[in-house]
Design goal:
By secondary structure, this protein is an alpha+beta fold. The chain has eleven helices and twelve strands. This is PYRD2 protein.
Length: 353
């Protein structure tokens, strides 16, 4: 409805609608999807409203930059050291964390960038949390339709709509986010309907990026890495079947067949691929249900209700413990707003310790 007010072109509306459903088990017809579109368009990058950017060196470089900035302020970084639990004092206040190797890291405050489910249901002693709070966290909708496919190719994709130059140099569209299978909003809705019935979409929504065009160091000369953000895939297949290797590869084949129709020769250029279904995203990255936002960006899980009513201000029932990740207000996206807000709240409390 929002897009209909502003645009006439169906392919344009459908392409914009992908940002209204990205990461959400919803279709453009779902109530509240307009907010998700707003959430992805409200930001800015270097003064350009609604712009997004690539991180030089890959997304891991962002974490490394944060770590270097922290180290300049004499922070100690424990990389590759999983946390087993939050340590609490006799008064119930957070006093640090215990690592899985037995090391205890003491602190007057603890900020968690993990999901609300991991933070409060696994790392925090359950008896220290109100029952209604625990119930709310357990009920957070984390259903995810996303399957991420990382691809290595030995040449630049060549799209029928905009053929490559003779010298195969990257063109402007190779530097952008390329949306496939979104010629109409009805196509997106049908893809959603497939997953709602426990079937991977037969014509999935595909967002294709080639970051190595802007960051050549990501791939050998002449080769590229292609990032495919696809949906819809159900977390559990029809009949309760899990995502085994055969199901994972069959879906990837469907995605590649779709890309081949737009860019003939793409499948022949593939030298490697990594397929991450919703269960894989949860296992590898700790995303509950594979949800990239740590919880659906639905109207009942936003603002004062994120992650729970009365606890949207980054504090939680455990004094000294703060939530600073995507599961906190204002939600998902690589923008740092939740972390900055949580840090300000923690600093304010720290003055009184």
């Amino acid at each position: 409805q929002v897009l209909d007010q502003w645009f006439e072109s169906e392919p344009l509306k459908a392409t914009l609608a992908t940002d209204a459903v990205i990461g959400a088990m919803a279709s453009p017809q779902s109530p509240g999807s307009g907010y998700v579109l707003l959430h992805h368009a409200m930001g800015a990058l270097e003064g350009r409203r609604g712009a997004w950017g690539y991180v030089a060196g890959g997304m891991g470089a962002l974490s490394q930059a944060i770590a270097r900035a922290a180290a300049t302020h004499r922070a100690h970084v424990f990389a590759g050291k999983p946390v087993s639990r939050v340590l609490l004092g006799p008064d119930g206040r957070a006093q640090g964390v215990a690592l899985q190797d037995g090391t205890e890291v003491r602190s007057k405050v603890v900020l968690s960038n993990a999901s609300p489910q991991l933070t409060f249901l696994e790392l925090t002693p359950r008896e220290q949390l109100p029952k209604d709070f625990v119930q709310r966290i357990q009920q957070v909708d984390t259903c995810s339709p996303v399957t991420k496919i990382n691809v290595a190719v030995d040449r630049l994709p060549n799209f029928l709509a905009a053929p490559n130059a003779r010298d195969d140099r990257p063109l402007p569209h190779h530097q952008c986010s390329i949306h496939l299978n979104c010629e109409s909003s009805e196509l997106l809705h049908r893809a959603f309907a497939d997953a709602s019935n426990g079937r991977p979409s037969s014509r999935p929504m595909i967002e294709l990026c080639i970051p190595s065009v802007l960051d050549p160091g990501l791939a050998p000369r002449g080769c590229h890495v292609v990032s495919l953000f696809t949906q819809y895939t159900p977390p559990v297949l029809a009949g309760g079947r899990p995502w085994d290797e055969a199901a994972r590869e069959a879906y990837a084949d469907t995605v590649f067949d779709c890309i081949e129709a737009y860019a003939p020769g793409f499948k022949a250029s593939v030298v490697g691929r990594d397929v991450l279904t919703p269960p894989d995203l949860e296992r590898v990255f700790g995303l509950p249900g594979g949800n990239i936002f740590h919880g659906a960006m639905s109207l009942d899980q936003l603002y004062f209700a994120r992650p729970a009513p009365a606890y949207s201000g980054y504090r939680c029932p455990v004094p000294g413990l703060y939530l600073c990740g995507s599961g906190a207000h204002p939600g998902g996206g690589v923008m740092g707003a939740a972390g900055r807000n949580a840090a300000r709240v923690a600093l304010e409390d720290f003055k009184w310790l």
